[in-house]
Specification:
Number of strands: 8
Distance between the termini: 41 Å
Largest sheet: 5 strands, mixed
């Protein structure tokens, strides 16, 4: 039995979200940012980061995935918050992979669907899991 598969299968959505959130916090802290995760399970911003002199502040929304799947964005792209989106994939593995996008890029790349009067938006892996965004922490700065 593979440890990786049993870990993936046993993680709840909340644990997947926590792993991604804290992995992103770790990565940003390593790059010199002061990092403050916000209240879990609240809609909106997941992380606020700022420089030591508070001259630069950014907000970040984290989307965590245990596998390379589409990223759900909800029904209204106007409600997306954050300066940046970090999609943290493969969080159940020993090597999570992050993709760093600006909010306007997320809106531009999002797919929109409607079924039975209900609207949903998402990002496809072919749109976000590209070299331009892969581990592109320099897009946020340090």
């Amino acid at each position: 039995m593979s440890t990786r598969n049993s870990r993936t299968d046993s993680l709840t959505n909340q644990v997947v979200g926590n792993v991604g959130l804290f992995y992103v916090c770790y990565q940003l802290s390593r790059r010199g940012w002061n990092v403050m995760p916000t209240t879990r399970n609240a809609r909106g911003i997941d992380i606020v980061i700022y420089t030591t002199d508070a001259s630069r502040i950014h907000t970040i929304q984290v989307k965590s995935l245990s596998k390379r799947n589409p990223v759900p964005l909800g029904g209204d792209l106007k409600r997306l918050l954050g300066d940046f989106f970090v999609i943290c994939g493969n969080v159940a593995s020993d090597a999570p992979e992050c993709f760093v996008l600006k909010s306007e890029e997320v809106r531009a790349l999002a797919h929109r669907g409607e079924k039975e009067g209900r609207v949903s938006c998402w990002l496809q892996p072919k749109d976000y899991a590209v070299q331009k965004f892969r581990e592109a922490w320099d897009r946020i700065g340090s």
